[in-house]
């Protein structure tokens, strides 16, 4: 049995703050003594299930978030750039297909989260850097191709997207997040002495490190995003 | 002319996250090369003016905030303890009188913010540690007494509370915060090269330090709150 602390990261590629948390947690999984479990989840379901409203509905908050993301992107070295029409991309088009696709990729993994990590990153890059679609099968294929999946793997993942099994898996991950107490993403759940400790957002890493007895070293550089 | 960077902290003693930011900024004003300006403001006015809703209305968010504040209180060494009835204390009773009182104390200061700092801290301690009233004149007097104000100063501050001058001063500080783009407190406004940079909440200190070219050293210990 491993003595590593288990940390789950619930995320949706439609959420820019999730991208920050995702990159930071992926970097730190090599630094801290943790087992990181990537949990693709559906933000729309969590917002509806918790009764939460998108923060961007308040004009001053929307303006602030743009500047905040801009600064954080530079500081964390994650190439975030908001799509031209944020409400259209985030809420009208949404991420149900994309997160089913990531769930399908996870379903196909034999061990580890390597492909889930790479495919998720490519999807974020599409919507939150290139301002491109993440709802159509062709978009999902392209992201998966860039992430290194083979043609047959991509075909299989697209088929799986429509399976009851994958739909249910995404739904139950979303319900699990709600049961933990989610009201948005990213949500980091640290399992400490059999008890889940929740950290919402991408601004509790220093506190998280303190809680798990590790050291926060600031945003580490990372090869996977630094080259953009 | 001083070369110190001017940083304004807009706060309301009804807001627990403001207390965290207040203590951290007061500690760092001795560490960073900054001129900290305390800006007592009315949270109710900013929520109404920006169209924002209290986060605690979403049940999962309310639960999370309780745990979050608990952990942050320990980590930042600020003795936060929620009042038994948070909605009653925060929204029904509110902080209009308290913030008028702090504004009056500021109006009476000859130079510096020393009394504003001490009175604000005592008011936070009342509502967010001792679960006591901060709306009645007797409550305000008691807090001011603990903060070291003399009887005549307290009498004068209570009189000033009802003056048009102080009412207007609080109102215009609140409007100024809204003009900067506030949608809640704490709001830290850093003046960098003549441009205001906004930081909302008590979780951007590391980023703030980076932006002003200073170093974040974590939550420093502080004599004023450590003894509780």
Describe the model.
Two copies of one chain form a homodimer. Chain A has a four-stranded mixed β-sheet with strand order 2-1-3-4, with helices on both faces. The radius of gyration of chain A is 17 Å and the shape is globular. Chain A has eleven helices and four strands; from the N terminus they run βαβααααααααββαα. The model of chain A has no long low-confidence stretch (mean pLDDT 94). In chain A, β1, α1 and β2 form a beta-alpha-beta unit. In chain A, α2 packs across α9. The termini of chain A are far apart. Chain A is of the alpha+beta class and 228 residues long. Helices cover 55% and strands 11% of the residues of chain A. Chains A and B meet through α3, β4 and α10 of A and α3, β4 and α10 of B. Chains A, B: It comes from Pogonophryne albipinna. Chains A, B: This is Glutathione S-transferase kappa.
Defining key terms:
homodimer; 228 residues; alpha+beta; 4-stranded mixed sheet; 11 helices; 4 strands; 55% helix; DSBA-like_thioredoxin_dom (chains A, B)
Question: How do the helices and strands line up, and which of them pair or pack?
Answer:
2 copies of one chain form a homodimer.
Chain A: E1 5-11, H1 16-28, E2 34-40, H2 43-50, H3 59-76, H4 86-93, H5 96-108, H6 114-128, H7 137-146, H8 151-161, H9 164-180, E3 187-192, E4 195-200, H10 205-212, H11 223-226
Parallel strand pairs in A: 1-2
Antiparallel strand pairs in A: 1-3, 3-4
Helix pairs in contact in A: 1-3, 2-9, 5-6, 5-8, 5-9, 6-7, 7-8
Main beta-sheet annotation of chain A: 4 strands, mixed
Order of helices and strands of chain A: EHEHHHHHHHHEEHH
Low-pLDDT parts of chain A are none
Net shape of chain A: globular
Oligomer: homodimer
Question: What gap, in angstroms, lies between the N and C termini of chain A?
Answer: 39 Å
Please tell me how large the radius of gyration of chain A is. 17 Å
- What percentage of the residues of chain A does DSSP assign to strands (E)? 5-15%
Tally of contiguous helical segments of chain A: 11
Mean of residue pLDDT values of chain A: 94
Report the count of strand segments of chain A. 4
Protein name (chains A, B): Glutathione S-transferase kappa
Enzyme class (chains A, B): transferase
GO cellular component, one term (chains A, B): peroxisome
Keywords (chains A, B): Transferase
């Amino acid at each position: 049995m491993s003595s590593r602390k288990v940390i789950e990261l619930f995320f949706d590629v439609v959420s820019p703050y999730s991208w920050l948390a995702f990159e930071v947690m992926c970097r730190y999984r090599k630094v801290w003594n943790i087992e990181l479990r990537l949990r693709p989840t559906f933000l729309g379901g969590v917002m509806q299930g918790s009764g939460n409203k998108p923060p961007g509905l308040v004009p001053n908050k929307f303006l602030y978030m743009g500047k905040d993301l801009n600064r954080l992107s530079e500081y964390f070295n994650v190439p975030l750039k908001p799509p031209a029409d944020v409400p259209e991309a985030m809420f009208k088009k949404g991420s149900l297909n994309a997160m089913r696709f990531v769930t399908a990729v996870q379903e196909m993994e034999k061990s580890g989260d390597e492909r889930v990590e790479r495919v998720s990153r490519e999807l974020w890059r599409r919507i939150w850097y290139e301002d491109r679609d993440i709802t159509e099968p062709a978009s999902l294929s392209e992201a998966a191709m860039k992430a290194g999946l083979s043609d047959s793997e991509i075909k299989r993942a697209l088929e799986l997207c429509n399976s009851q099994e994958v739909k249910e898996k995404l739904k139950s991950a979303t319900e699990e997040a709600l049961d933990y107490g989610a009201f948005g993403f990213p949500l980091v759940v640290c399992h400490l002495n059999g008890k889940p400790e929740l950290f919402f957002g991408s601004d509790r890493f220093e506190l998280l490190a303190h809680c798990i007895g590790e050291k926060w070293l600031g945003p580490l550089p990372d090869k996977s995003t630094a080259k953009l």
